Amino acid sequence: MRGWIIYKENASLLRQESYEIHRLVEVAKEENIELEVFSPDQFDLTVTREDEKSILIDGKKQALPDFVMPRMGAGTTYFALAIIRHLERLGVYCVNSSHSIETVKDKLFAQQILAEKNLPTPDTMLVKFPVNVALVERQIGFPVVVKTLSGSQGSGVFLSKSKGEFDDLMQLIEATNPKANIILQQFVKASHGRDLRVFTIGGRAIACMERNSNGENFKANVSAGAKGKPHPITPEIEWLATQTANVLGLDVAGIDLLFDQEHFKICEANSSPGFEGLENAVDINVPKEIFHFIRIRLGIFDRTQPKLNDKPKAAKPSEAKRAIQSN
């Protein structure tokens, strides 16, 4: 089985995905998978009827892989998305699809879809400049979480604790970038500085960890210094995570859940979830789980491994006789 990873470092990320890329390549070798890593900048696309000539890497034609893993998440540019769409058109399986990546990149759109399916999410509001602070106070209340429309690893997320602090922040944003896309989200007090990261693959919740900043930050991202520890996957957690991934069309996802008294609310979904913190907290090999899912999804199995339906060879008469005598 052959695969590509499409990845480019993003200056806005607190921590680059070098760990994840290294682990995917390392485990691919163990699983007898040929895996190559390319940057979107290496691709050239041509819309043509001659499919085999329509995509070039470093100016050269290359045989298409069996699957592609985009690892850019919220940092996926239009050009990168065009590459993914083009590969899908050529029949290459992409984990995740261009549609699902584009959907979850827009946090407001993703929240709209989840709310439409009656899934529990924090109240969310789109900012319109000049901001009507009194309306925000009535609809969302303070403290309020301020988010950029697209972001990951906790970047572009702020907590305005009071009406005055929020007003100052909105004036600053309007003065510097009046066309900025900002959303406001209800602050869930019970989840201050902690949340759950549930990793889902192929509609299954394979691992869950609690992330906790120990009060040092209202955000619970491991990339921002929070610590992770195993957390049991209850039926509620499993249902929320798998439903979210399914509704958003994600085959591989990191679903973030907020503690809400005795229950949970869906914070957001990630199409290219990091898993360094998860592997450190939970005894699980994430790349191996992903590759096994892809093999099953594509029906391409490692011929060097015994098949499940292979029957053991019958013992030779002499071996059978010795076995009976020993019993």
Quick structural summary:
The protein is α+β, with helices and mostly antiparallel strands. It has 10 helices and 16 strands.
SSE inventory with pairings:
Layout: E1 2-6, H1 18-30, E2 34-38, E3 43-45, E4 55-57, E5 60-61, E6 67-70, H2 78-89, E7 93-94, H3 98-105, H4 107-116, E8 124-126, H5 133-139, E9 144-148, E10 157-160, H6 163-176, E11 182-186, E12 194-201, E13 204-212, E14 227-230, H7 235-247, E15 252-260, E16 263-270, H8 276-281, H9 286-298, H10 317-326
Parallel strand pairs: 1-2, 1-6, 6-7
Antiparallel strand pairs: 3-4, 4-5, 8-11, 9-10, 9-11, 12-13, 12-15, 13-14, 15-16
Helix pairs in contact: 2-3
Features:
327 residues, alpha+beta, Rossmann fold, Dna Ligase, domain 1, D-amino Acid Aminotransferase, Chain A, domain 1, 3 domains, five-stranded antiparallel sheet, four-stranded parallel sheet, 10 helices, globular, disordered C terminus
